[in-house]
Amino acid sequence: MTTPLRKSLLVGAAGLSLAGSVAGCAPTAQAGSTDLAKSGSTITGPYKDGTYSADGDYFSPNGGETVGVQLTLSGNAISAVDITVHADNPNTQKYQGEFKDGIAAQVVGKKLDEINVTKVAGSSLTSGGFNKAVEKIKSEAK
Amino acid sequence: MPYAGWSDFSFDGIGTRWEISTPEPLTSAVRQLLLDVVEDYDRSYSRFRNDAVIARLGQDAGSITLPVGAADLERLFRTLYRLSGGAMTPLIGKSLEQLGYGADYALRPLGGPLPAPRWEDALRWDGREISASEPVVLDIGAAGKGQLVDLVAEALLSAGIPGFVVDASGDMLHRGVQPLRVALEHPYDPSRAIGVVELRDRALCASAANRRAWGDGLHHVLDGSTGRPVETVVATWTMAATAIEADALATALFMVEPDVLEDEFDFSWLKVYSDGHAAFSAGFEGTLFS
User: Fold this and answer.
1) Which fold has domain B179-290?
2) Residue B87 in contact with residue B216, Cβ under 8 Å?
3) What Enzyme Commission number does this protein have (chain B) (predicted)?
4) pLDDT digits (tens, 9 = 90+) for B144-195
5) B48-138: what fold?
6) B181 and chain A: CB distance < 8 Å anywhere?
């Protein structure tokens, strides 16, 4: 039970896209139909409205890095999300800048329990830091 | 858990988090079996343990005998070493230690970059037997996590469990009838996904430049006229019958053109480049959000 909020973010991010030629996506078809409660990963709300932020640390082959996560919650939904990665590695920073466009605009209004994905494949190192940050936010928002 | 009513068994192993999902809870005997499989693998191959079998090759040259699965690693690494012109090598370990990523996690470079020794000069690898003509640090990391996913899956099958998901923090194997929807994590923002793939009876593995920054330097190539990285791969995903192949190929895609790999391997791939465009093979069509 460590990642439900993160999962919701990932689904909320359904319409998000990379900068460049994969950009301009519409967040339509991905609204989740699976009820998390049914699959056993119930989100125990309600969450207080507000803006929350937390940092999570993770270790990568580049060394220690920090992910800053700021969430705005309203009506048990994420209305805004902002990710800051305080990467020491100049290459990481470079890439961060190129991929960061449009994060907040496209996750608006996705309900925490509208989740249709239960697994994530990607960089396991960064997700550890993100999960830590989200856990802090969840405890703050109770 | 991936499906309603399923049970998860989670543990830490080889430096990552594991989640084994099954329709019924695993018995304590099966849990112990899985933990033993993971521990055996770690004791054989860990770069971070002085008591690992491969550690003996680093202290002084000589010979070691590895578990049966070493023959699969040899075959895979040998092929990818050839296809990548030596860029993808299990002998990168010494270079990593030089850069500070050794067993002590010093994170302080010991000196300048050290090229990996050539396989044909330093290493004789024949199935389970490896001997080295000089002290070498063997790093099978490019395929090791995948192989361990396969070994855990084999253990589950041997225990009479036909349907399951083995997830080693994003590298995973699915067995069963009902497909598993898996988000493809954004290369630089773990709160986002760039697509969703339906996985069924296959392995899915990922590799990202932020984990491979030390691997080959390719993604650090900048265009001098713009100062921007161009056409460099920042993230890859692969699907194959086995996780060992999917894992190794996800790394290989950073160094080898997909069509070259396709001549030797049956797999699906997706590559995302630093300028944001993506390319993919059959098997990944329709997975990216649009």
Assistant:
1) T-fold (3.10.520)
2) yes
3) 2.7.1.180
4) 999 999 999 999 999 999 999 999 988 899 999 999 988 888 776 666 778 8
5) T-fold (1.10.3980)
6) yes
